[in-house]
Specification:
Largest sheet: 5 strands, parallel
Shape: globular
Number of helices: 9
Number of strands: 5
Distance between the termini: 66 Å
Radius of gyration: 19 Å
Structural class: alpha/beta
Length: about 180
C-alpha cells in the first residue's frame, strides 16, 4: 500500500479543473483508492445576500444546480462515469479554497487542483483557490497545469485569430 487513502479533486467545470479531474482519476487508478470530486458553491450574491433574505427553496435549487455542474464536469472529463475507479462525489457550500482544505483531514488524503492560467497578469488576477490550497492544506497538494489550449490567450477564440492571421479588429470589418 502506498499510504494514499483517497484522492480529492476540486471541480468547477473550468478547463483547468477538468484536467485536474482526469489527472486525479489516473492517480486513483494507480493507487487503487477512491476518487472524491468536490464542487464548492456559494449562493448568488454570496452568503451575506442569503442571510439577508433566506430561502430554503432557493438553497435547494442552488444545491441541485451545483450537483448538475459536478455531474456535467464529470461527463465532460470522461464521457461518462468511469467504472474502473470508485467515485465519491460531493457538493459542499462554501468558498472553494476553504472547502477543499477542510475536507482533507484524513492521513493519506491527496488534494489535486487545477493550477489556473499562466502568465504574470493571469496569475495576479486569478488562481486564488490554488494558492490558498497550496498555502493551507496539511496534505500533499498536486497543482495540475491547465491544458495547452487553455494556456493560449483568450482560449479558443485567441487560438483561431492567431492561426488565421486575424485580429479582433479584422473580425469587425465587412467582408470584401
Amino acid at each position: 500500500m502506498s499510504g494514499v487513502r483517497r484522492i480529492i479533486v476540486g471541480v468547477s467545470g473550468s478547463p483547468g479543473s477538468l484536467q485536474a479531474l482526469r489527472h486525479a482519476a489516473d492517480l486513483a487508478r494507480m493507487h487503487q483508492v477512491p476518487l472524491a470530486p468536490i464542487l464548492a458553491w456559494v449562493p448568488p450574491g454570496g452568503d451575506m445576500a442569503d442571510r439577508g433574505h433566506p430561502s430554503a427553496y432557493l438553497r435547494g435549487v442552488w444545491r441541485d444546480a451545483a450537483w448538475q455542474r459536478l455531474w456535467g464536469a464529470i461527463d465532460l472529463a470522461f464521457g461518462c462515469v468511469p467504472e474502473d475507479v470508485a467515485i465519491d462525489p460531493d457538493v459542499i457550500r462554501g468558498e472553494p479554497g476553504h472547502v477543499l482544505v477542510g475536507v482533507t483531514f484524513h492521513p493519506g488524503d491527496v488534494l489535486v487542483i487545477g493550477a489556473g492560467r499562466r502568465g504574470v497578469l493571469a496569475h495576479a488576477l486569478s488562481c486564488r483557490v490554488s494558492r490558498y490550497c497550496l498555502a493551507h492544506a496539511e496534505c500533499p497538494v498536486i497543482a495540475v497545469p491547465p491544458p495547452a489550449l487553455a494556456q493560449m490567450s483568450h482560449g479558443l477564440r485567441g487560438w483561431a485569430f492567431r492561426h488565421r492571421g486575424l485580429s479582433p479588429d479584422h473580425a469587425h470589418q465587412p467582408a470584401a
